[in-house]
Amino acid sequence: MLIVCWSPVMVEVWNGPGDKKTVEGPSRMPAPIRLRELIRTIRTARTQAEEREMIQKECAAIRSSFREEDNTYRCRNVAKLLYMHMLGYPAHFGQLECLKLIASQKFTDKRIGYLGAMLLLDERQDVHLLMTNCIKNDLNHSTQYVQGLALCTLGCMGSSEMCRDLAGEVEKLLKTSNSYLRKKAALCAVHVIRKVPELMEMFLPATKNLLSEKNHGVLHTSVVLLTEMCERSPDMLAHFRKLVPQLVRILKNLIMSGYSPEHDVSGISDPFLQVRILRLLRILGKGDDDSSEAMNDILAQVATNTETSKNVGNAILYETVLTIMDIKSESGLRVLAINILGRFLLNNDKNIRYVALTSLLKTVQTDHNAVQRHRSTIVDCLKDLDVSIKRRAMELSFALVNGNNIRGMMKELLYFLDSCDPEFKADCASGVFLAAEKYAPSKRWHIDTIMRVLTTAGSYVRDDSVPNLIQLITNSVEMHAYTVQRLYKALLDDISQQPLVQVASWCIGEYGDLLVSGQCEEEEPIQDEVLDVLEGLLVSNLSTPVTRGYALTAIMKLSTRFTSVNRIKKVVSIYGSSIDVELQQRAVEYNALFKKYDHMSGDEWLRVTIDQLLSSVRILSCSYDPNSSVVSLNFHLTRRPLSVCQTFQLQLLSPSSNVVPTLNQGTVTQVIRVLNPQKQQLRMRIKLTYTHKGSAVQDLAEVNNFPPQSWQ
Amino acid sequence: MIKAILIFNNHGKPRLIRFYQYFAEDMQQQIIRETFHLVSKRDDNVCNFLEGGSLIGGSDYKLIYRHYATLYFVFCVDSSESELGILDLIQVFVETLDKCFENVCELDLIFHMDKVHYILQEVVMGGMVLETNMNEIVAQVEVQNRMEKSELCNQN
């Protein structure tokens, strides 16, 4: 916390005449070096360390010079400090010196002092408040350039307190006839309003005749001020709507005025002012019929008459388009605007293409059909070399996909997916899945599209896509054979893309019987080949632990679909001692299953799938008919909780059926809702009691591997 | 609003740094480094607009830049500024420098950092565009330079 008392004596010394000290003496330090010399010296440094050393040496010299309170060289020293500050070296010890310079009578001192204040100070330092008085004096200075410096500084870094103190001075200057000061006062007022919004009212009277100014600089900053006020206050917005005719007139004059050398930029009269006015018109016309009507003609005029060969013309056109799209313009005008954007898309200049795509993205929701007309141009932009343009074209393309154009668009987007940079692949893949889900013309097309994404960008597909895809495939019952065959083939080619491998493994596990049964169009693999592939996944370095889990589960499931059960048992038992804990646990549980039912022959073996079996059933009776090989189980639905303990509460819902079909033709699911407020680990013990061939059998199994996110 | 104006050379050495929003010193240097890193990667035939760069804060900001010989002129702006308009503004600024320094080159910016600031001050104030008429800007800068010169003469 820095508290400085400025005694009157000190002020006199600085503001009085003859503040030049003539001090030369053998005990005095040599004059501080000029900024130029310092820069030259620093440029000779060959390493960062050398530079640092030079800077430190100079800083020490500057500090000593400051201590001597030498007015002559203060500005030179501060200039050097600002240079060093730009290079990244600390310069805070110069803050007070800036204030002293500001208080000086010399313009040179004030100029560098104010610059230093703007670069080194901000409202977080208490020191800045000391400037308030100086600025106040300088706002009333006899020299306009000093007034200008004060306005500039206040408008850049004035704190709320300073703004409150000095708002009156700014308001006064806003009404002056001096255009140099008036334009600066306008921007300073914007800053004051941002810092202290309650003061906005105070500037209202001064805005009355701002727009009748001839000076373009004043006009420009006035429009900025009006824009700020309208954006901040709906009342102001309503109040300033009456300015629309005046703004339209000014714009008209600019377009129609012919060549004016003063304001000409590449053949257009003050394009910056035109853009500013167009933006203000946008704000005034938005949501207001009358204002929109009043500006309709001029917008059409600007849209059709503006010369487009140079960037300035395009900047105006672009702003016009944005305004047309935002206000309540008639449909003809809107179509005109979108067509301008369409032309922009064909422009050689990349910047123009970029802004066109950005604008189209904003309007595609509201003017969908109009934008659709430019679809082919947009799709062409997917092939652009520029990354920013490609990204926008991709987003826009997805926005334009609908039921009518899905086939064509998907072709282009898949081609894009093949060839685009990795940074796009994840987003593009997600977009393709979404679009396919919404508009797929047929299930087969849908599966084919998914396959295409998985095989070309499989490693970039998001993790959450895998369960979604599995769900999708499950629901497309008639496509199971086709899907599993295609996925199997894809696995033969490439096992590096994990999402593809995971989905494929799951499908093979679930529909492996369809794969080998000859239901597919092509030559079907034999069981051993399929198991080879799945085992290959288990041992491959390319497979992640999650993938291995999928592969092992798939192999397990095939034990109920394939006949080579011994081979499967062998594989599973090997993984009972796997280093991967997850894999080991699964293998051990699967092994246990095998052991339990080992004494049964194939025919009699009760096939219960333990794919996340959540069932709390008490089997009341079980009968087995050897002639038809049907095992029927009767369930008793229990509403009582399995075990009443304090940490959990359970609610059992009805099972999906009370008959478990044989030959794995279906499963029975029962949902249990668990209330686990203490977030204890979930475990479940299943007890099966049934009679088999007249004798009672009881079986226990435990489920310990509930995923942590289910109970944490 | 213009949040920052950065001029640096092809090696990332800063030639003019002006922030219109408060950032701590080390943050300023980080922003300069990050901006240089983003901009120098760009080919010369891509567009002049860049998104990304997380340090200046928020998603509502773009980098608009122009590459002249050995210097990058980068304006960091938010959505209230027209992208194409800012490109034109950079052009105006550079042409103004050219008029003030007579065929401006990097060395002029290096040795007259303070003068470049004074010129910029007549173009952009508080992060907003102040004046775009080149002749006006040059005239105002020259009057002030003359005032400085005459003070220097009187002193001696």
From TrEMBL, chain A:
Keyword DNA damage set for record: no
Pfam families recorded: Adaptin_N, Alpha_adaptinC2
Membrane topology (UniProt): Peripheral membrane protein
Keyword flag Nucleus: no
Keywords annotated in UniProt: Cytoplasmic vesicle, Golgi apparatus, Membrane, Protein transport, Transport
Protein's GO biological process: intracellular protein transport; vesicle-mediated transport
Localisation: Cytoplasmic vesicle membrane; Endomembrane system; Golgi apparatus
InterPro entries: Adaptor_Complx_Large_Subunit, AP1_complex_gsu, ARM-like, ARM-type_fold, Clathrin/coatomer_adapt-like_N, Clathrin_a/b/g-adaptin_app_Ig, Clathrin_app_Ig-like_sf, GAE_dom
A single cellular component GO annotation: AP-1 adaptor complex
Residues annotated as domain GAE: 589-707
PANTHER family on file: ADAPTIN, ALPHA/GAMMA/EPSILON
Family: Belongs to the adaptor complexes large subunit family.
Name of the protein described by the UniProt record: AP-1 complex subunit gamma
Organism whose genome encodes this protein: Astatotilapia calliptera (Eastern happy)
Upper lineage: Eukaryota, Metazoa, Chordata, Craniata, Vertebrata
Gene (name only): AP1G1
UniProtKB/TrEMBL annotation, chain B:
CDD domains reported for this sequence: AP3_sigma
GO CC annotations, alphabetized: AP-3 adaptor complex; cytoplasmic vesicle membrane; Golgi apparatus
Domain of life, source organism: Eukaryota
Pfam families given in the database record: Clat_adaptor_s
Membrane topology designation: Peripheral membrane protein
Descriptive protein name: AP complex subunit sigma
Localization per record: Cytoplasmic vesicle membrane; Golgi apparatus
Keyword Mitochondrion: no
One of the protein's GO biological processes: intracellular protein transport
Annotated family: Belongs to the adaptor complexes small subunit family.
Domain AP complex mu/sigma subunit stretches: 1-147
Biological function: Part of the AP-3 complex, an adaptor-related complex which is not clathrin-associated. The complex is associated with the Golgi region as well as more peripheral structures. It facilitates the budding of vesicles from the Golgi membrane and may be directly involved in trafficking to lysosomes. In concert with the BLOC-1 complex, AP-3 is required to target cargos into vesicles assembled at cell bodies for delivery into neurites and nerve terminals.
Classification via PANTHER family: ADAPTOR COMPLEXES SMALL SUBUNIT FAMILY (PTHR11753)
Source organism phylogeny: Eukaryota, Metazoa, Chordata, Craniata, Vertebrata
Keyword line: Cytoplasmic vesicle, Golgi apparatus, Membrane, Protein transport, Transport
